[in-house]
Write a structure and sequence with these properties.
Structural class of chain A: alpha/beta
Shape of chain A: elongated
Strand content of chain A: 15-25%
Helix content of chain A: 40-55%
Oligomer: homodimer
Strand order of the largest sheet of chain A: 2-1-3-4-5-11
Number of strands of chain A: 12
Number of helices of chain A: 12
Radius of gyration of chain A: 26 Å
Order of helices and strands of chain A: HHHHEHEHEHEEHEHEHEHEEHEE
Largest interface: A-B, 41 and 41 residues
Chain lengths: 334, 334
DNA sequence: TATTTTAATGTAAGCGCTTACATTGCAGCC
DNA sequence: GGCTGCAATGTAAGCGCTTACATTAAAATA
């Protein structure tokens, strides 16, 4: 592999000059630049990122920590980030934390020790304190889908209260009043907010919240199944089910169908997230769209702006919309 | 950030000694090691990967190029690779190539310029020649899901001929003889092999291959829809559809249902890949399982063995199985 | 043309490590 | 005690760049 030495020898200039043309500095005479460039091409020279990183302050790499590498939630997220970074010629280092506190911390530390210029984190298990601590350690980072008051401007979040609200409201507007709710795990902030939105819609329309129609799941399909089974076994009437996310909705649909209930004829269902699968389900799922990709790319832009001083617009809070598909219908009037 | 200098000063030893304890060399007196370790902890010292990379031959990072960051195909792949690398304390650099020749090449070059110790590639657009060329450029790499004779031992592949074969054979065994086939794009090796497997099964059972029952799609859902529409419009009878992948199968199911045909009662369907979605579909899709995660982790092991000289077992060719679910049934006898 | 100003280029000191080789210390031996 | 032979440790030269500062060449000015 050719080095900068080879280039400056062949081109008859000093290292500094070569470095200048590499970095696109103005202070090089066009003629010199041409000569250097042509030598570089001739030699197939590519600057060593490693050496550049060591010598300069920046590594041009951004650490990305997600919960899972797999699944239709994180895919768009990574891809949103990556696209934006790629345009800016930065490299993302992706790690997964698997929602375990230890692994999340370990992942973050490992990213730091790799000298990332910044971090984009989607973490659930680590505490606010840890993150606050981290923010004092001069490693710039953005939080995706998590809100911490003290570092609000480093947080890119979805208005989950509103999401939960419109999901339930849509059902109320279809005439439903007995509305079951399958919640995500209530130790997660987003799950709480979504549920609060649900309650808000209920309250606003004079419907009282019924504990018996609410089930706490874990965001996985299986808990959607368990939820419907539990709901059915209680014998309470409900004509609509609002779900904390699409996966649980998928489980719910299957289980309802197995119980001889038709969706949406007998039961109306709304999901949340609008993952790929929502569109493959039968019936196609009406759901609250989580603008994941946009938010992810916003996170990348945050870095571009705050770390590399690029001039970009930032937006912190996103507002979700309802995507109407085939899983909802008006309440049957008897 | 504390550097190795701080450590050796505080511990009263030379840099070489500190370096030895960092790298777990034997040649350090236990007492010395302890002292150094305690100083490192006290200072919160973490060696700089960058500097280590520059000084040593290795960066401990492995470039990974996939076609997409998103989708249920690549998720398990990345996660399979990452898990294995993580155990070995290596970092994966993930890039996506989007099946465009230019972007794939660009991605590969960028990975190389980042001094990856090795590359794991899932590429479709670049030519064999390019890859052969690459293999001479002293960058070790493995190919996932692609076979090139000359570098066969760098290829980790699925026996797609067998996959296509068992898919179709399963239908024949259910009594079907009029079997439609929705193929992937035939410029891709795997699509060809799967189709060949289909033909082989047909031939073996004395059924002749009918061009009119075969449709070339592009592996996306929409082409599954288009395929069924085309098939239906031809008016040829078929009682089973074998699909080149699950996505197209998903499209096919919906379209058949819209046409008033029931799956599996009227038409039997088999997919290929066993992506997540297959399990969410209605009916749950019977499909050929692509052991993606295993293959991906094998790719990682290939690197561990061939680049870092670790002692691991390698396997090049995987054989797929059929996963029986609910989308197939015996041919109706009139 | 001599002088000042400015642009272009060069010099060399790091960046934080690894590693071949040199040196030191000490156990074991006669 | 003096010597050999390792094991433990130290020395110092890179690795391939960036960059503050110094120098020189060219352009502008008088």
């Amino acid at each position: 592999m050719a080095t900068i030495y080879d280039v400056c020898r062949e081109a008859g200039v000093s290292m500094a000059t070569v470095s200048r043309v590499i970095n696109g500095s103005e202070r090089v005479r066009p003629k010199t630049r041409e000569r250097v460039v042509s030598v570089m091409e001739q030699l197939g020279y590519k600057p060593s990122h490693i050496a550049q990183s060591l010598a300069s302050k920046f590594t041009n790499s951004i650490g990305i920590q997600v919960s899972e590498l797999t699944g239709s939630f994180y895919g768009p997220m990574m891809s949103g980030i990556d696209e934006e970074l790629h345009k800016a010629n930065k490299q993302g280092l992706i790690t997964s934390g698997r929602s375990s506190e230890e692994r999340e911390k370990h992942g973050i530390e490992s990213l730091i020790s790799r000298q990332c210029d910044a971090l984009i984190l989607h973490v659930e298990a680590v505490s606010d304190e840890y993150l606050l601590e981290l923010s004092k350690r001069n490693v710039p980072f953005v939080l995706l889908n998590r809100y911490i008051e003290e570092i609000a401007d480093q947080c890119i979040v979805l208005d989950d209260l509103h999401g939960g609200y419109i999901a339930t409201k849509s059902q109320i507007e279809l005439g439903h009043t007995d509305i079951a709710y399958i919640s995500g795990p209530l130790w997660k902030g987003d799950a709480i907010q979504r549920l609060n939105g649900h309650k808000k819609a209920l309250k606003e329309h004079g419907i009282s919240f019924d504990e018996d129609l609410c089930f706490e799941g874990d965001y996985f399909k299986e808990s959607g199944i368990a939820a419907v089974e539990s709901l059915l076994s209680k014998g309470k009437h409900f004509s609509a089910v609002v779900c904390g996310n699409d996966e649980m909705a998928a489980g719910a649909i299957v289980t309802l169908r197995n119980a001889g209930l038709s969706v949406p004829r007998d039961i109306s269902i709304v999901g949340y997230d609008d993952i790929d699968v929502a569109n493959y389900l039968y019936p196609r799922l009406t759901t609250v769209k989580y603008p994941l990709k946009e938010m992810a790319s916003m996170a990348a832009r945050w870095v571009l702006k705050n770390v590399y001083n690029q001039d970009v617009r930032l937006e912190n809070k996103f507002v979700p919309d309802l995507i109407h598909r085939d899983s909802c219908s008006e309440r049957k009037v008897h």
